Amino acid sequence: MAERPDFTHKKERHGLIGPFSGRQLAGVFAIVVVAVIVLVAATTPLGQVGTGPSVVDPRATAYIIDKAPAVGLKAGDLAPEFALTLDDGSTYQLNDLHGKPIMLSDLRGKAVWINFFATWCPPCQAETPVLRQISETYRARGLEVIAVSVQETSPADVQTYADRYQLTYTIGFDGSGRIFHQYRVYALPTQFFVDPNGVISAVAQGPMTVESASAYIERILPAVAPRSSASP
Fold first, then answer.
1. Can you give the residue range of the structural domain that contains 59?
2. With 70 as the cut, is the pLDDT of residue 44 above it?
3. What global pTM score does this model have?
């Protein structure tokens, strides 16, 4: 009788987790990492994020949306009016969200914080509560906050944003971006702190904190707060 072969029992191989081997788990992990990277890239806002030399808080960032001008406005310059004459002789005027003209000359005697922003800009969104708080805190002491909205679809869209966050300071709609370029802005948000004589005291890129904004504003407040138009 032929000798039957012996049956050898091979030891069962177990994976690191259940039936999965280390190589299989490494492959799955790599796929997950790639998916996360793609998701982050897809959800990151377009444009470059960087810092400028005049950023108050070194951790603050500005959303770059244009090429930096060769020469920008600086402290000591007279702040440009919110109106300019076009090549065809017509006048472009910055209006608020209700169509009322905003004139910087009407604010002589007050401290003015000009804030260029957009409702879709993440650093601007983060800064919005600061503008609201600062406006409420310093309004009686002669501060006027003027936020200039750029690259927006319509005044109605910006008004929806203002209503949602209960913003009571003045917001101008710069639909064509002409005031944006008049002030040589290239990043959002960008801040101009203007003294009661209409002279720029400081220019800063990036979002303000309550502390950094207060430090600039304290330097430009009028010696005597202007009386409200409602006062006798």
1. 48-220
2. no
3. 0.72
DSSP for 91-148, written as a single string: EEE-EETTS-B--GGGGTTSEEEEEEE-TT-HHHHHHHHHHHHHHHHHGGGTEEEEEE
Least trusted range by pLDDT, from 1-5, 162-166, 179-183? 1-5
Within-domain flag for 89: yes
Average pLDDT over residues 136-155: 97
Q: Is 84 inside a domain boundary? A: yes
CATH number at residue 153: 3.40.30.10
Domain count, the chain: 1
Read off φ and ψ for residue 171, nearest 5 degrees.
-125, 125
Q: Say how many CA atoms lie within 13 Å of 151 toward its Cβ.
A: 18
Q: Is residue 70 part of a domain?
A: yes
What confidence score (pLDDT) does residue 24 get? 55
